[in-house]
Amino acid sequence: TNACLGAIDAADALGAFVHKTPDIALERAQAADARIKAGDAPAMCGIPIGIKDLFCTEGVPSQAASRILQGFLPQYESTVSAQLRDAGAVMLGKLNMDEFAMGSSNETSTYGNAVNPWKTDERSLTPGGSSGGSAAAVAADLCLGATGTDTGGSIRQPAAFTGIVGIKPTYGRCSRWGVVAFASSLDQAGPMTRTVRDAAIMLGAMSGHDARDSTSANLPVPDFEAALSGDIRGKKIGIPREYRMDGMSNEIDKLWQDGTAMLRDAGAEIVDISLPHTKYALPAYYVIAPAEASSNLARYDGVRYGHRATLSAGDGITEMYEKTRAEGFGAEVQRRIMIGTYVLSAGFYDAYYNRARRVRTLIKRDFEQAFEAGVDAILTPTTPSAAFGLGEMANADPVEMYLNDVFTVTVNLAGLPGISVPTGLDKSGLPLGLQLIGRPWAEADLLNTAYVLE
Ligand code: GLN
């Protein structure tokens, strides 16, 4: 813990931690020492970790990297961070992210972006988003693991950009209680770590039923670490032809082929599959996620949480709402709220929101058909490219940024588990990741397949 706290202080320029909690860390580390001495060490005893700023942590600032939550001190702890604490993990502080987890580069954060510890000679790179601080912190060895959340790729894309492992579990595996809501039907928490084994251990501590989240599954949590045998003989791995996008770079194509060969060499059977509705996933996601966000973010009214605008004489409650929300939310969040209220409005609801929901069902069915045909897991690239430069997208059409999520959003729409594993480098020496998508609740199997790719 002391080594990590020192490393964090020395790495302020990375912008990974937005709030440090050294007092809490040292207290928990001492408690962990005592438990180890007493021979009563749980799974994560004494392991220093970071917590994404989206998780409510009791008495510790939890702002979702938004100005509108400035000064908000939760009176309760999220279920996931409480479970990690109870498993002995040591919280070092809160990690940077895109505002309300909306973004793919960490540049929508009110704190400014975190920086990817990997760089090229000419440019500084994004760590990805929205869990960019988590990815940067783990990749730079500031902590041994971090929590992330993934609504459309926010664990897997930053993991791929920084050369680490990130798993989004099946929807319902980890409780969403105390996690600031973005799009409730898509949001899932998960671990970000250096290795697949670490991910297995940390996911075990984060998982489980929680009566306070009605979508949390009442299922036993397998021993994920014990599943890491490295034996995948006879497993059927699907390669979906629709993910071979026009204009896919040779590097990504080669990475994908190399990964396929590794799994084949380990005894898996490789099959071509079709997921025909893939091309509609991104548009459906960018209707459904903003729709849910616009509803979830209605609660930030200047009364119940955090920031309130300074008012002028004569301002009433409407001006208070308007001014608070106008200065409290950043541009990307305001864009999502506007898209969301538009697609939900009377007159457009059927044309956009309901249609997107029907497309979502078709996407889910594509996966179900592949699994019914005996496929155990699906292999795809995690991202269309390696990390891009900070500021490079600043003047681009926002849709350019959304295209980053093309391989990851399908998994959230279908509620499936997905993992990104670092499997290679591009020509400038930057990390690239492959994604494995599994059957519902088959994280143990998925982690074991990822273990072979690592
Ligand atoms: N980049 C996607 C978005 O901006 C995904 C974000 C996420 O998974 N939280 O919506």
Automatic annotation (TrEMBL):
- Active site (record annotation): K52 (charge relay system), S130 (charge relay system), S154 (acyl-ester intermediate)
- EC numbers listed for it are 6.3.5.7
Where would I find the Amidase domain in this sequence?
1-447
Fill in the subunit field for this protein: Heterotrimer of A, B and C subunits.
* InterPro entries given in the database record: Amidase, Amidase_CS, Amidase_dom, AS_sf, GatA
- For whether the record's keyword set contains ATP-binding, the answer is yes
Name the chain's protein: Glutamyl-tRNA(Gln) amidotransferase subunit A
